[in-house]
Amino acid sequence: MDKTSQAQKAALLKKLHHEPRILVLANAWDAISARIVEEIGFPAVATTSAGVAATLGYPDGQRVSRDEMLEVVARVARAVQVPVTADMEAGYGTTPAEMAETARALIAAGAVGLNLEDVTGDDENSQVDLALQMEKIRSIREASAAAGVPLVINARTDVYLMPIGPAETRFERTVERLRSYAKAGADCVFAPAVKDAETISKLAKAVDAPLNILLMPDAPSLNELERLGVARASIGSGLMRAALGTARHIAKAMFERRDDWTMFAEAVSYAEVNHLLGRG
Fold first, then answer.
1. Does the predicted model carry a pTM greater than 0.90?
2. Which of 82, 18, 85 is closest to 231 using CA atoms?
3. Which end of the chain is less packed: N or C, by CB atoms within 10 Å?
């Protein structure tokens, strides 16, 4: 992809965060799931790090290498025409210089945006110092701008998701981090695992940037999130896990020798898979 076209896609992705309607992202984990998302009509494709890691044989949480993740992102970017934003976990590095390397590699892979987390491990002690996380965001912003493709940065904090620290202070600490990330150059900010409408509404008003909320079964609906002022909603690994659930359901029926072909009623046909991937 030439840099001019890629920069135009980055500008489009950024613009989608400021539309009257909420930006909805059905996260893909490989080329064919990305093509399905695009074919349905979504204006952009987001990847899920957990989904990509699972297909490569890793659990979620910084276990997959940067190169392995970027290889999948590149396959997704080549498969679709819409902008691609990649979940790059905590950036696969610990320093601003390594974030700059990740930014340049991500552009080379064909993506125009990324998610950046502020934890690097499995517990709250791995949360990155606020000042350092801001430096990481600035480094991505500067390196991608210098490369000619200003990446759309979705800066995430896991204060609620992990969760981190006393419950009564989580809202204030989330606001502090997300406002700081926006100040450092993030285009959107992300607080996964916030579920109740009142907290979401307060966050949307307080963070002074487009807010991303994770879609969950017990969270507000898309229409409600839009009413609350949320700019972006994504499903994370949810789509991939639902697909795995379907696979397990069918495999179990086969194992139990139950010939229930109604389970294939929603299956994508063999011909359509080939068509989506450019054959025929």
1. yes
2. 18
3. C
